[in-house]
Amino acid sequence: MKSSPSNGRIGTTCRTTNTSPHGEDIEAFLKREIAKPIIHWEDSPQLGYEILPNKYFYRYQPPTPAKELLAEFWKLEKGAEWMLEGLANS
Predict the structure, then answer these.
(1) Which of 31, 37, 48, 58 has its C-alpha lying 20 to 30 A from 73's C-alpha?
(2) Distance CA 1, CA 9 (A)
């Protein structure tokens, strides 16, 4: 039966089930699964490890000084003017 808003019933496709391995006794399966230890974060000082890439791989490089940037800008500006003059004269 499909779920429909008119009858308000939920069909079998909406159910979730847990299965045990084929051929295994359900009691043995539940006993084994329930016996697994549960880790609580309060009981353990560390549950995992965080790797910070910046801490190990980042190398600081100071920014280029403003004088060098301006020199490079004016050099490119003069090159652009030279190219425009060459286009205008041809």
Answers:
(1) 58
(2) 9
Cα–Cα dist 61/59, whole Å: 6
Structural domain boundaries enclosing 36: 18-44+61-89
Map tokens 């000082």 to a residue: 45
Residue 68 maps to a domain? yes
**CB contact at 8 A, 8 and 14:** no
Residue-wise pLDDT for 14-53, tens only, equals 555 556 567 778 888 888 878 777 766 666 666 666 778 8
Domain count, the chain: 1
pTM above 0.70, yes or no: no
